């Protein structure tokens, strides 16, 4: 195997990106089949809706609640929003999965690093296949 085949772009626990393969927990896919990657925060919008509901309960029943109960609702909502903001989804689109892709949910920081590593590995793979032709 050449040095390019052995190159590792990213490793974090069970997440790994090499010049040939992308592994995420129990899934793996060949880098050559990947067409694109994206990161979203799908839990944030769901949590945001729930927190608006909690705030609505606090406003609707504010005259019946103690101040610490209202504070508890606010703290719970803020904590859930902060937690949901830090959880992300990395979706990998390949020639095999088409528009559906396959998703991995984890903390947003490692997922962003993994996405950058996948994109770098894809660029390196393209650059490696575009070797200059012999002039002579």
Give your account of this protein's structure.
There is one protein chain. The model is unreliable at 1-5 (pLDDT under 50). With 136 residues, this protein is an alpha+beta fold. The chain contains four helices and seven strands. α2 runs antiparallel to α3 (67-85). The longest helix is centred in the last third of the chain and has 22 residues, at 108-129. β2 (15-18) and β3 (21-24) form a beta hairpin.
Taking pLDDT < 50 over at least 5 consecutive residues as the criterion, the unreliable ranges are: 1-5
Mean pLDDT: 87
Q: What is the count of β-strands? A: 7
Strand order, sheet with most strands: 1-2-3-4
What share of residues is helical?
A: 40-55%
Could you tell me how far the N terminus lies from the C terminus, measured between alpha carbons in angstroms? Answer: 28 Å
What Rg do the Cα atoms give? Answer: 22 Å
Cα shape: elongated
Order of helices and strands: HEEEEEHHEEH
Structural classification: alpha+beta
Number of helices: 4
Question: Which range does the strand content fall in?
Answer: 25-35%
Largest pleated sheet: 4 strands, antiparallel
How many structurally independent domains?
A: 2
């Amino acid at each position: 195997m050449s040095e390019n085949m052995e190159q590792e772009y990213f490793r974090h626990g069970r997440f790994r990106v090499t010049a040939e393969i992308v592994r995420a927990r129990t899934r793996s896919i060949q880098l050559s089949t990947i067409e694109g990657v994206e990161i979203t925060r799908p839990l944030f919008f769901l949590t945001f809706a729930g927190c608006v509901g909690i705030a609505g309960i606090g406003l609707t029943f504010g005259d019946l609640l103690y101040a610490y109960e209202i504070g508890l609702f606010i703290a719970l909502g803020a904590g859930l929003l902060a937690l949901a903001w830090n959880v992300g989804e990395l979706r990998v689109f390949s020639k095999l999965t088409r528009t559906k892709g396959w998703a991995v949910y984890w903390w947003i920081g490692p997922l962003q690093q993994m996405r950058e590593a996948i994109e770098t590995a894809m660029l390196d793979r393209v650059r490696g296949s575009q070797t200059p032709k012999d002039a002579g």
